[in-house]
Amino acid sequence: MQEQLTPELLREMVGVSQIPRPADKAAFLAAVKRHCPAALREQGRTGFVLVDVTVDATGAVEAVTAVPAARGPRPAAVVVRRDADGREVHQPVGGIESDPELGPAAEAALREVRFTPARRDTVAVPFTVRIGIQFTP
């Protein structure tokens, strides 16, 4: 049975009861589209980058750092199931390769976006969250 990610469980896992997220999803998507690198547009291809985003207690972006490339694609998700003996099995599903060279474009887009800050109970706190940015022409 899958455990629901409650504020209590989130706090136990990472120390906050709410993680930062874009306050306006449409503005976030528009900023990403606006900052799609010209090379991707010209070639008609997509690009993906994982970044660590530090959001301050007011919801402003303090820092954006591209995550160094790993060997091979990162899974889009991991399915957790039990095998016939009841042992937990983690199975990567899908995946896309991160391109750290897209970090500056991601940073430019994210600096235009306001976030809801992380919260520790009712108090807004700075927090760094890892997110994926998908650029499409």
Describe this structure in a few short sentences:
Helices cover 23% and strands 34% of the residues.
Main beta sheet: 3 strands, antiparallel
How many helices? The count is: 4
Contiguous low-pLDDT stretches (5 residues minimum) are: none
Radius of gyration: 17 Å
Distance between the termini: 40 Å
The geometry reads as flat
**By helix and strand content, what is the structural category?**
alpha+beta
How much beta, percentage-wise? Answer: 25-35%
- What fraction, in percent, of the residue positions are helical? 10-25%
**Widest sheet: strand order?**
3-2-9
Strands, count? 9
On the 0 to 100 scale, the average pLDDT is 84
Order of helices and strands: HEHHEEEEHEEEE
Which keywords apply here?
137 residues; alpha+beta; 3-stranded antiparallel β-sheet; two-stranded antiparallel sheet; 4 helices; 9 strands; 34% strand
Tell me what the structure shows.
The strands form 4 sheets. The protein has a 3-stranded antiparallel β-sheet, covered by helices on one side. Strands 1-6 form a two-stranded antiparallel sheet. Helix 2 packs across helix 4. The longest helix is centred in the N-terminal third of the chain and has 10 residues. It is flat and about 50 Å long. It is of the alpha+beta class and 137 residues long. The chain contains 4 helices and 9 strands, in the order H-E-H-H-E-E-E-E-H-E-E-E-E. A hairpin with a 5-residue loop joins strand 4 and strand 5.
